[in-house]
Write a structure and sequence with these properties.
This protein is mostly beta strands. It is built from 3 helices and 27 strands. It has a 5-stranded mixed beta sheet with strand order 1-16-15-14-13, with no helix packed on it. A hairpin with a 4-residue loop joins strand 17 and strand 18.
Amino acid sequence: MLVLSATSKAVNSEDKVITCDMDKTIPILFDDWIEDISCTVLEKDLFDTYVSIIPYKDLYYVMGRTIAGVKIVIFKDTGEYVKEVQLRDPIATESMTIVPELEELWVISFGNIIHKYKLDGTFLKRIKLPFSCTNIITADFPDFLVYSGGGKDDKGSIQQHLFALTDFQTIHQLFIPQWGTQARPYAPFTLFAKDTESKCIYIFPSKIDTIYRYSCLKKSMEPYYALNFHGDFLTKDKEPVGPLEDKEMNDIITQKKYIYTHTSFQLVNNKFVFKLRGKRDNFCMIDLNSNKVYSFKNLFNQFQTNSYNPFLGAKDSNLYMIVRGQDLNRHYQSHVCSYEKLKQTLKALPTKSDKWILLKINLKK
């Protein structure tokens, strides 16, 4: 049984919080930062859209959506289909995580249910948590960071906080007091990025213009980067509330009144990458060594994607995307492909191939 009492950890940093002026980003070409792009054609087409990828050993754990709900499929790193994980709640599935110490895949659903699987997709057991949870982040085992999903009431928060540090026996710490008007918890596309060398986890919560750093060594979470969008960013205190909130939120999105969300938050080679949506629609990159902030509109060779969450995962020096072969072929009818492995992969496919291609974008150090 979990002990449902804990102390709230102050988030004031002893170090100076770094403020980034997001009106003064340095424009770049994404190609200038790319070393190479390698390609893997996925054997089976099982998704309409993709949510996330976890590269683990020689496998890819791929989460995506169809009209029937969420699917999680295991592929070899060659693209060969291995297995579809038989989800208990495909309509209500929120996120997934791998726990290396246990060699288990955990799937979170219904805002407080964990379904545990072996890494081969064999179901193990179901656990119900006594608090809201949409995302679980492996910290310093047996401790985990748990994200509530951001709901405003007791059912949507963890003792009125967004994050908790827990070993699922006791809640050790609570981080970031709950604020804003969001009624129901939900799992963001990308919430965190890990730095395994420093044993730090960087967290960019939904509708908060701050990137936090959690230290596994200190067991503390502190604001690290304050992102100054000069009023363009839709923070939790600006969210519509009341009988017209759905219409007002729709106006915010369609009329691009604010940056209403961000996706693709990843850490590669000591650089953050993320995608803005709304009033600004560009990619941003923050160099943790220099604290310089860069921005770019297009991807490799000026390629543009309609994907809501283009970068699905990251490992070592690589960012991961999944793109339709026909979309790439269409693009390269009017653009020159400067990446030999990508060029050879497309050459081997029919021009109108609807195969999904997993791109591993290797960034320069």
